[in-house]
Design brief:
The protein has five helices and no strands. By secondary structure, the chain is mostly helical.
């Protein structure tokens, strides 16, 4: 498997388990595999990377919803019991992790 395929499989597996913190690190990892670096600047490249990550998350959510309400609850797609345990978003990378990492690709 390529690094991109590996990261998508890992991100999907961890996200479907409802593990928000580890999922966030894999949102960042997926972005880095796609070329994201540094802060959350709004360049065409970063917009494209974020759109791809959003698309992957949407595909995962669609599969979870297809499996039914029990899987939605177990994966915390619904936000969990307190509504604060949902899946991470691309904006969380800068807010919670300080960006995409500063090293060169």
């Amino acid at each position: 498997m390529t690094p991109l395929e590996t990261e998508i499989v890992v991100f999907t597996s961890i996200t479907c388990q409802g593990l928000k913190g580890p999922s966030l690190w894999h949102v960042r990892g997926l972005g880095r595999v796609l070329g994201a670096r540094g802060s959350d600047e709004e360049t065409p490249k970063m917009r494209r990377i974020k759109d791809i990550i959003r698309g992957v998350k949407l595909a995962i959510a669609s599969a979870v919803e297809f499996l039914g309400p029990e899987m939605v609850q177990r994966s915390r797609l619904d936000g969990g019991p307190d509504g604060l345990q949902g899946w991470p978003n691309v904006g969380d990378v800068s807010r919670d992790l300080g960006g995409w990492g500063d090293d060169e690709s």
